[in-house]
Amino acid sequence: MSRKILCIGAGYVGGPTMAMIAARCPDYQVTVVDINAARIKAWQSDRLPIYEPGLLELVRAARGRNLFFSTDVAAQIAANDIIFVSVNTPTKTYGQGAGKAADLQYWEKTAREILAHAKTDKIVVEKSTLPVRTAYAMARILNTGEKDVHFEVLSNPEFLAEGTAVKDLERPDRVLIGGRDNDRGRQAVQALVDIYAHWVPRERILTTNVWSSELSKLAANALLAQRVSSVNSLSALCEATEADIAEVTRAVGMDSRIGSRFLQASVGFGGSCFQKDILNLVYLCEHYGLPEVAAYWEQVIKINEYQQDRFVRNMIARMFNTLSGKRIAVFGFAFKAHTGDTRESPAIRVCRRLAEERAEVVVTDPQALGNAAHDLEGLPGIVLEPDPYRAAAGAHALAILTEWPEYRTLDFARIHAGMAKPPFLFDGRNLLDHQALYDLGFNVFSIGRAPRSHV
Ligand SMILES: NC(=O)c1ccc[n+]([C@@H]2O[C@H](COP(=O)([O-])OP(=O)(O)OC[C@H]3O[C@@H](n4cnc5c(N)ncnc54)[C@H](O)[C@@H]3O)[C@@H](O)[C@H]2O)c1
């Protein structure tokens, strides 16, 4: 079997995934292509287009040896036999299914490009997250019979999480490969198993039918997001009843049937995947005539929006019902720590609401200010400030929106001294030591816990 791999789409998934394959499979040649020339240039440099702990070292280990980046999509399709497709599949913003269905235009363009430039048989691997039965559409577009070339479509969804992508790729909980149950399908599945088996224990490589594989990715994200919304809904009840969400989640998390991970109350989940994949699931349920199932999953998103709005409503209420002209320092803009990615970050919605209240919003973040500038473009009263101390100087309130560990070790006595009084702190990630901050003179409000306030 050929040892030449191509990946179309050099984003958060394509780049790290292919870097790991190249690093662990020196006997394969891996090329990553993208239509975005600036992105490809960045992958060829030491200023990678995305921030991910350990990624630069991984890329450097293989780049130029058996890992290459290129913009020549057509030539690379012709030259490689196993083609991963890792293009973006955002929520559709227009026409039928707007706001819910996956926008498959990039996906279909890629399929047509593969068809146009392939001269030999190809294995096409869906790496992007897709609606169930997309492989069927893909195979229909590819195998039109116009060419004497066969395309075998596999599903191989990616489960890496941003911020821990390298670790997740190195030691995945499982690798999932969906293929057809016939000779060609089994052969293609085996070709993909052979790649991952270079470093993933065989018992962690699952092979299923294509539809189970496609649906498992949507199901995993829906279940993870549901845990966040479940905890966040309970955090509202904690605030009303003087129960403490940290104590509640500790108690329920020790139940081995529930488990302790992903039970952290917060201002809400973000990221490019959870919302879009649940909406995609909702759309599929509606399409297949299952409105009750659709409504059940849609509620996970509604609670997420409620939690973000509740956070801002609380800020307004606590700060004497007006934020107008007040300086609010937003600590953290990325949707979670250890990434510069801000797609669907709760900070976007929170900053918009704060700007609507005519606050002066100063945003600081160690990795995400470039993306923040784009997300907040045109909003009045927004300032971006890399230094957290300067961001906090003169502020009436701090709002912690990303759980960057470095925020824990800031000199809060110094920050307190420079703030307008009385100083407010809203911890949207329950990240900091609230009692210590209260003792310093802060009025501290967190998620699902009793306020510690002097006013
Ligand atoms: N980001 C994550 O954490 C994550 C995790 C698992 C799965 N996924 C899924 O993986 C897919 C990719 O996500 P991402 O975050 O890497 O997206 P991304 O936007 O970072 O990257 C996609 C890349 O594809 C390129 N592209 C689009 N059309 C192209 C074409 N016709 N030819 C060549 N390149 C093209 C874009 O220029 C872009 O650089 C999505 O379906 C997503 O749901 C993402």
Give the arrangement of secondary structure elements.
Blueprint: E1 4-8, H1 14-24, E2 29-33, H2 37-43, H3 55-62, E3 67-70, H4 73-79, E4 82-85, H5 105-117, E5 122-126, H6 134-142, E6 151-155, H7 165-170, E7 175-178, H8 183-196, E8 205-208, H9 210-241, H10 245-253, H11 274-287, H12 291-318, E9 327-331, H13 346-356, E10 360-364, H14 369-375, E11 382-384, H15 388-392, E12 397-400, H16 412-418, E13 424-427, H17 434-440, E14 443-445
Parallel strand pairs: 1-2, 1-4, 2-3, 4-5, 5-6, 7-8, 9-10, 9-12, 10-11, 12-13, 13-14
Short structural description:
With 455 residues, the protein is of the alpha/beta class. The chain contains 17 helices and 14 strands.
Description:
With 455 residues, this protein is an alpha/beta fold. It folds into two domains: 4-208, 3-Layer(aba) Sandwich (Rossmann fold), CATH 3.40.50; 209-455, 3-Layer(aba) Sandwich (Rossmann fold). The chain is built from 17 helices and 14 strands. The protein has helices at residues 14-24, 37-43, 55-62, 73-79, 105-117, 134-142, 165-170, 183-196, 210-241, 245-253, 274-287, 291-318, 346-356, 369-375, 388-392, 412-418, 434-440; strands spanning 4-8, 29-33, 67-70, 82-85, 122-126, 151-155, 175-178, 205-208, 327-331, 360-364, 382-384, 397-400, 424-427, 443-445. Helix 1 (14-24) crosses helix 3 (55-62). Bound molecules: nicotinamide-adenine-dinucleotide.
